[in-house]
Amino acid sequence: MAEDRPLPGLVRGGVTLLAGRQTGALVFTGALVVLARLTDRDAFDAFVWAYTAELLVSSILNLGLERLTANRVGTTRTLAGVPAILAARLLTLPLTAAAVLGLVAFVHVRLPLGAMALTVVWTGAVQVQGVLFAALRGIGQPRAEAVLATMVRCTQATALLGTAAASGSVTALVAAVALPEVFLAIGLVSRLPTIAGVASPAGLPGRLPTTARLASPAGLPLRLLGAYTLIEVLAFAYLRVDALVIGRLLGPGPGATYVLAYRILDGLTALLTPFLLYLFPAASRAAVTPGGVRALRGPLLAWAPVVATAIAAPVLVVSGSLHLLTDRFAEAGPVLRVLVVTLPLYAFSAIELHLRSAEGRNRSPIAVGAALLVLNVGLNVALVPRFGIIAAAWVLVACELLQAIVLGTALRRAEELRSGLTRAALAVTLLAIAAAASVDGGVRGALVPLAASLAVAAWSVATLRRARRRPVGARGQERARSGSETTARR
Q: What is Dmax (Cα atoms) for the chain?
């Protein structure tokens, strides 16, 4: 039954991952806040840079291996291809080490030798986990990832605060968060088939394997892997390059203000990430069936922008009061009000791009990603020096709008999508008007278009729910009857 109705399973899996990831993230973030009070400034800054190096390198050097794992396991519902992909992951660890060392040197951060080595091990462990968690998502076991992620974050938070109270050295702090990640990676490798509830494939023994014990990565589809890598690198660069351009053109102060607003947007888009992670293997599995991803594409593209609009609207209102937390938000608030307009556009485009990639249509995500990156840089270089950081926010809105139009144009003939996309576009348009009004006249001036945007979103949700209650056969008979009447009149 789950295979016949992929959407409910996708929603349940996404919610499960979201709960686990966000719970762990909140616990760890709280520990960082307390850590800042327990340690001196130099030790805290060094630890934060070690953490930043792990986050950036594990993301940039993913190299498409997680996506390939999700595709292969999601399509076959077995772990047969995991040993070869895991071997490829282990072979890339020297590149990971070089990237961590290079990043730390680039920002002129002095980490003790032990802390540096532990940061490299930490990053490598997270990358190995990424492949194995992708396999669990492909099998359809999101609960295991959610539970394990929460357990590790809680363990890290406890160890971090205990270490800070007892020692406070940078090396000890990095060890407190690195070692739980290493133990989790070892446990996943040795127990993955048991956790996934499937048979153990050859090359995945019951202990931490060496590269020699794993299957050879020589048989991996390098062209597909290269396409996945390009998609991920272009997307990462496109969503981060504006902050770098601002820092280069206007200096570190305005750059930090823009990043402050952007981090809130990152927190909002992170709500969608678990659904995208679970969507890709589910869509890969659906793509090889006679119906394809149609049962997923229609509801998701109609619902996601509307739900994202409803999330963005309160943030736009609250942004006017964030300056009460810190004076820095007095500058970042107007930028945030513009950036939230991208949330429903991002939801639409991210889902469609994942669906296309699951269908094997990787050229359009690569072409769109490359074009947007060039456009984003060009417009920022031209407009930021004259109009300031608010221009960068509107440039991102323009790029996301262009991307949504390009992707939506290819879907305009799909009858089951047309009305839903029209309502979503209207809601987003009103949200953009509200954002523009709030920047010029404050949040009060945005209340009317904002209320209209929420009304359209509510109307869309009600319409979509009524459409889901009606049997598919009834809709088909109604369209057929309407067509027959039209023919008779002619």
A: 86
Q: What residues contact residue 263 under an 8 Å CB cut-off, 6+ apart?
A: none
Q: Residue 291: exposed, middle, or buried by beta-carbon count in 10 A (0-12, 13-18, 19+)?
A: exposed
**What are 387's two structure tokens?**
């109009």
Q: Work out the angle between the directed axes of helices 41-60 and 6-38 (0-180°, nearest 10).
A: 160
Q: Which two tokens stand for residue 454?
A: 């929420």
Question: Taking the CB of residue 382, how many other CB atoms lie within 10 A of it?
Answer: 12
Please tell me the predicted confidence (pLDDT) of residue 333: 74
Q: Give the helix/strand (H/E) hosting 424.
A: helix 415-441
Distance CA 183, CA 205 (A): 17
pTM: 0.75
Which residue has tokens 């048989």? 219
How far apart, in whole angstroms, are the C-alpha atoms of residue 46 and residue 101? 14
Most confident of 387-391, 410-414, 474-478: 387-391
Distance CA 488, CA 490 (A): 5
Average of pLDDT values for 102-125?
A: 84
Confidence of residue 211 (pLDDT cuts 50, 70, 90): very low
**Alpha-carbon separation of residue 463 from 424, 425, 459, 466 (angstroms):** 12, 15, 6, 5
Confidence of residue 485 (pLDDT cuts 50, 70, 90): very low
Q: CB under 8 Å to 431, separation ≥6 — which residues?
A: 309, 312, 313, 316, 340, 341, 344, 449, 450, 453
CA 299 to each of CA 20, 302, 307, 308: distance values in angstroms, whole numbers, following the listed order: 25, 5, 12, 14
For the chain, the helix, strand and coil percentages under 3-state DSSP, each to the nearest 5: 85, 0, 15
Residues in contact with 378: Cβ distance below 8 Å, sequence separation at least 6, in sequence order: none
Distance of alpha carbon 198 from alpha carbon 201, whole angstroms? 9
Q: Pick the closest to residue 190 from 119, 128, 277, 118 (CA basis).
A: 128
Tell me which residue has tokens 């050295």.
169
Q: Which amino acid is at 160?
A: L
Distance CA 22, CA 274 (A): 10
Burial of 12 (0-12, 13-18, 19+ CB in 10 A): middle
Distance CA(474)–CA(45), nearest Å, equals: 62
Structure tokens at 168: 């406070």
Residue 38 parent element (H or E):
helix 6-38
Q: Torsion angle of alpha carbons 206, 212, 216, 217, nearest 10°?
A: 90
Q: How many CB atoms lie within 10 A of CB 336?
A: 25
Which conformational region is residue 109 in: left (phi greater than 0), alpha (psi within -120 to 50 degrees), or beta? beta
Q: Which residue has the higher pLDDT, 283 or 451?
A: 283
